[in-house]
Amino acid sequence: MANNISSVYERIKENIGKVIVGKDETIDMLIVTMLCGGHVLLEDVPGTGKTMLIKSLAASLGCDFKRIQFTPDLLPSDITGINFFNMKKSEFEFIKGPIFANIVLADEINRATPKTQSGLLECMEEAQATIDGKTYTLAAPFMVIATQNPVESMGTFPLPEAQMDRFLMKGSMDYPTHDESVGILTRFDRQSPLATLQSVVTVDELKEAIEALPNIYICRELMSYISSLVEATRTYPRVTLGVSPRGALALMRAAKGYAAIAGRSYVLPDDIKRAAHPVLEHRLQLENSLRIRKNAAAEIIDDILGKTTVPTEAVFEAHA
Predict the structure, then answer these.
(1) CB contact at 8 A, 40 and 170
(2) Bond prior to 141 in cis (omega within 30° of 0)
(3) Strand order across the beta sheet in which 40-43 lies
(4) Higher pLDDT, 159 or 101
(5) What DSSP string describes 23-74?
(6) Which pTM was predicted?
(7) Which residues share a beta bridge with 47?
């Protein structure tokens, strides 16, 4: 079970590595989110390779891929689709929107109005879209990967808390190191390697991996550890709103994902710690004075991880 998931992960990561230089942790986060059946938000300045990474992931899979450029004039129907009257047939026909794909890139999601952003909520939470009173099931697997630019405020609309909570994980690309920059220039000197990238995992293989992930074992003591971490965010000073039960479930799913890509059939505390930052940070609502500090949420999670008692190794090894 875990070996099959690990095999899918290794093939995808190796293939993405033909295009993306470095960024192992971000690539792992993206693949784990996909295996968990979740969605991910990438926040970073323009030109760091967010879209290139997402296109590389899509090209590595035998899946449908659609890109939506979010703008202030984008309408919900531009995402989900419309019913139009066919004059020749004298009847209404439904034209599917770009949300009907396996992997959907919501580029610069915070440029769209709240009304348009709300059109994604049902899709992301229930993998379905309701148009004119009729509900359509989305393709499986289904994953939304959204990007946003943190340095621009003109013409942008902050994502509501309810939508932020729909993202299983949030991460960034960050600027490359000097050696990585040289590697990027060398790799893209003549042509983009993305143009020749081939799929290495079929839809059926991906579905099997996603269906197998819940079978990764997590002992009750580690469930208690996750609960303690989440509860600590709710009472932490200067945090106005802590992590919800949905966030706790997300942390458990992500920890199982990290355990699976490591080739294990059981979760360790290190898997939970690795998942804590990308899963919990964006779910914290901080006081206004803290929001302007770039790493405030990360520092809070670090502090909570340092103060929360970790189950002893003997406990979960006995269950494993």
Answers:
(1) yes
(2) yes
(3) 65-69, 103-107, 143-148, 40-43, 169-171
(4) 101
(5) -HHHHHHHHHHHHTT--EEEE--TTSSHHHHHHHHHHHBTS-EEEEE--TT-
(6) 0.89
(7) none
